[in-house]
């Protein structure tokens, strides 16, 4: 597998992670069966995709980028879907995480 494909898998895994986090919220402590099943499927999906990407990508960089995607995406969806705070400090924190992801992606491994 090429590095480009591995990065695409990592991105998809990060997006699955975001969807998983939101599905956990909607599952309400795993008391809602449909959301619970979706949550478990998303969990399996992001682990599978992350594992595939790590066959090619350096683990430190890939894991940090994956975590950043999950964190930023989940914070943004928390703001949109659940009315969580969109304060200047939180937006600044998101910008710093995104800057870190970009730096890791473009720097030599």
Shape: flat
**How many β strands by DSSP?**
0
Radius of gyration: 15 Å
- β-strand percent reads under 5%
Structural class: mainly alpha
**Main β-sheet description:** none
Total domains, how many? 1
List keywords for this structure.
109 residues; mainly alpha; 4 helices; flat
Polypeptide structure, described:
This protein is an all-alpha fold and 109 residues long. The chain has one domain (3-106). The protein is built from 4 helices and no strands. The chain has helices at 3-27, 33-53, 59-82, 88-106. Helix 3 (59-82) runs antiparallel to helix 4 (88-106). The longest helix is centred in the N-terminal third of the chain and has 25 residues, at 3-27. The relative contact order is 0.15. The mean pLDDT is 95.
Break the fold down into its secondary structure elements and pairings:
Blueprint lengths: L2 H25 L5 H21 L5 H24 L5 H19 L3
Helix pairs in contact: 1-2, 1-3, 3-4
Briefly, what is this?
The chain has 4 helices and no strands. It has 109 residues and is mostly helical.
């Amino acid at each position: 597998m090429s590095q480009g494909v591995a990065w695409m898998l990592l991105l998809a895994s990060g997006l699955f992670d975001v969807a998983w986090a939101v599905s956990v919220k909607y599952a309400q402590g795993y008391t809602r069966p449909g959301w619970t099943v979706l949550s478990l499927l998303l969990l399996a999906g992001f682990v599978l995709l992350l594992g595939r990407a790590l066959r090619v990508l350096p683990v430190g960089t890939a894991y940090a980028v994956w975590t950043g995607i999950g964190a930023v995406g989940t914070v943004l969806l928390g703001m949109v879907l659940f009315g969580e705070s969109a304060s200047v400090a939180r937006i600044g924190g998101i910008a710093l995480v995104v800057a870190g992801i970009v730096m890791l992606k473009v720097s030599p491994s």
